[in-house]
């Protein structure tokens, strides 16, 4: 049975790394002793070791050991044998590039589909969608494909921001960019606000957290989804 937590962010304002979601993770990973951490997105270019240490510190609080995928001799075997997996945030282009480069993306998809519990935050959540095309990140590298794991039947726009009516900024809003995407693409997009996440259990997708989420569909008016809403296939049409 497929089990995922797809979170908009790792850190909400005023709290520490993963702090806001640790109670949920304690239950989600209750049968897990060790997690394989995928640091490929590494924010601001920090080393894999530094990023992994940050994840280790957070999971120590709920009694779980973390080991970075780069610490294994074979990353594919690490994913296949993992008790649980966490992919952190950073740059989605670099994350996807490294997943393809290390031949990990397909084994990762298979492991999650076969029941390995998976946590993604930010970039690690973007790769749960059909493609990574709704990332907010700068294209600093060129991955072999924009196709990602397709574990949910839509794309994620993490850190979704509503337009600020008092702002003098004249550039595109997040909603404008998603509408531009839908000029050429059919896949629905979920704008996931910071502090909210998706709890995926097999084919059920439940919105959790403090905030509503905004669902965009091609040639349709965007709708707000309340927390604790099950996102059904008919909602996406």
UniProtKB/TrEMBL annotation:
The keyword Nucleotidyltransferase does not apply. Pfam families: Peptidase_S51. It is found in: Cytoplasm. One of its GO terms (molecular function) is dipeptidase activity. InterPro entries: Class_I_gatase-like (IPR029062), Peptidase_S51 (IPR005320). Keywords: Cytoplasm, Dipeptidase, Hydrolase, Protease, Serine protease. The keyword Hydrolase applies. GO terms for biological process: proteolysis. It catalyses: Dipeptidase E catalyzes the hydrolysis of dipeptides Asp-|-Xaa. It does not act on peptides with N-terminal Glu, Asn or Gln, nor does it cleave isoaspartyl peptides. Gene3D superfamilies: 3.40.50.880. It comes from the Bacteria. Belongs to the peptidase S51 family. This is dipeptidase E. It comes from Tenacibaculum jejuense.
């Amino acid at each position: 049975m497929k089990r995922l937590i797809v979170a908009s962010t790792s850190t909400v304002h005023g709290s520490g790394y993963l702090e806001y979601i640790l109670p949920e993770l304690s239950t989600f990973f209750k049968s897990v002793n060790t997690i394989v951490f995928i640091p490929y997105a590494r924010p601001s270019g920090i080393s894999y070791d530094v990023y992994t240490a940050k994840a280790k510190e957070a999971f120590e609080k709920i009694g779980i050991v973390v080991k970075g995928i780069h610490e294994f001799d074979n990353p594919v075997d690490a994913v296949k044998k993992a008790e649980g997996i966490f992919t952190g945030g950073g740059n989605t282009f670099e994350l996807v590039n490294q997943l393809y480069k290390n031949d990990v993306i397909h084994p990762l998809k298979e492991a999650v589909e076969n029941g390995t519990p998976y946590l993604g935050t930010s970039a690690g959540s973007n790769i749960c969608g059909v493609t990574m095309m709704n990332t907010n990140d700068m294209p600093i590298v060129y991955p072999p494909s924009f196709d990602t794991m397709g574990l949910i039947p839509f794309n994620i726009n993490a850190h979704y921001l509503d337009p600020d009516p008092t702002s003098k900024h004249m550039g595109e809003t997040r909603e404008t960019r998603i509408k531009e995407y839908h000029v050429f693409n059919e896949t629905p997009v979920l704008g996931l606000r910071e502090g909210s996440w998706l709890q995926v259990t097999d084919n059920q997708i439940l919105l959790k957290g403090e905030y509503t989420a905004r669902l965009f569909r091609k040639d349709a008016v965007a709708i707000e989804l309340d927390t604790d809403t099950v996102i059904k296939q008919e909602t996406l049409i």
